């Protein structure tokens, strides 16, 4: 049995200014995406040039933050959003308080890529395929931030990999996600996209494999307390939000195969 070390979520405190580990993880994720984009842009099939990378990361940052926060309120805190629609936007610090949603962040990135594709006059799908392998490292680092914050713990377990948290041994689902949705998904996508692939396939692979990992881990995660399980003791909102992603990924591949025939 492992014991959770109760890490201070504040990494740096200088007077009234505090810098959280969670924010640092996001920053490192964006830096990693920038460095990886600079490497991948050297491929002769890249739809972007070196000069476009700054804009891609800039718009992606905005998409992740605004989409992630708004997505959380839309999917997980709907009543608050309805009662006070602009509360999440009035004060910028609120963007980091109260939760972030991967699915909302994904929608934000898609919108950011749409803007970039128009600016550089490249097909939307081509830019999405370029961006897909840049995402997982940031996902993994974000989950490490959740672990440091001591949030998103899983179900009770007697497994040797369980962490003792406030008297209960639990699955460290944040670390499971960091490993599968972060590190392993990155390795798969980075190797898969080392050469040119059919249009839409890198994005489809991201959607399908992320979906498989997320659905698997959802069986170990605890749902948000104010939502709970949607059916029985296993179906969560995470399942319902992820399944359409996988279906869309398969549709991309099937449509491409039918078009080729």
The average pLDDT value, as a whole number, equals 91
First and last CA, distance: 55 Å
In the sheet with the most strands, the strands line up as 1-4-5
Number of helices: 10
Query: What is the β-strand count?
Result: 5
Based on helices, strands and strand pairing, what is the structural class? mainly alpha
User: What gross morphology would you assign?
Assistant: globular
Share of β-strand residues: 5-15%
- Uncertain segments are none
The helix-strand sequence is: EEEHHHHHHHEEHHH
Give helix % range: 55-70%
Supply Rg.
19 Å
What number of domains? 1
Main sheet properties:
3 strands, mixed
Written overview of the protein:
The structure is a single chain. This protein is mostly helical. It has helices at residues 21-40, 53-76, 78-83, 87-90, 102-120, 124-131, 135-149, 173-192, 201-218, 237-260, and strands at residues 2-3, 10-14, 17-20, 163-165, 168-170. Strands 1-4-5 form a three-stranded mixed β-sheet, with no helix packed on it. The termini are far apart. The model has no long low-confidence stretch (mean pLDDT 91).
Please give a handful of descriptors for the protein shown.
3-stranded mixed beta sheet, 261 residues, two-stranded antiparallel ribbon, 10 helices, 5 strands, mainly alpha
């Amino acid at each position: 049995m492992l014991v959770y070390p109760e890490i201070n979520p504040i990494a740096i405190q200088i007077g009234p200014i505090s810098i959280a580990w969670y924010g640092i993880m996001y920053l490192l994720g964006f830096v990693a995406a920038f460095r990886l984009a600079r490497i991948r842009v050297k491929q002769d099939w890249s739809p972007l040039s070196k000069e476009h990378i700054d804009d891609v990361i800039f718009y992606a940052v905005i998409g992740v933050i605004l989409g992630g926060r708004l997505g959380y309120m839309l999917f997980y805190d709907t009543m608050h959003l309805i009662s006070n629609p602009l509360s999440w936007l009035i004060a910028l610090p609120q963007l980091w308080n109260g939760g972030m949603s991967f699915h909302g962040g994904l929608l934000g990135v898609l919108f950011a890529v749409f803007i970039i594709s128009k600016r550089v006059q490249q097909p939307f799908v081509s830019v999405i395929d370029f961006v897909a392998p840049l995402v997982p490292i940031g996902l993994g680092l974000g989950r490490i931030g959740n672990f440091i914050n001591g949030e998103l713990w899983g179900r009770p377990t007697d497994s040797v990999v369980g962490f003792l948290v406030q008297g209960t041994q639990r699955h460290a689902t944040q670390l499971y996600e960091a490993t599968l949705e972060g590190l392993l998904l990155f390795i798969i996508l980075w190797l898969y996209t080392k050469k040119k692939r059919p249009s839409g396939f890198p994005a489809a692979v991201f959607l399908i494999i992320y979906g498989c990992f997320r659905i698997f881990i959802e069986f170990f995660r605890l749902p948000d307390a104010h939502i709970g399980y949607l059916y029985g003791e296993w179906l969560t909102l995470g399942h319902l939000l992820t399944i359409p992603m996988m279906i869309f990924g398969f549709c991309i591949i099937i449509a491409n195969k039918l078009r080729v025939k």
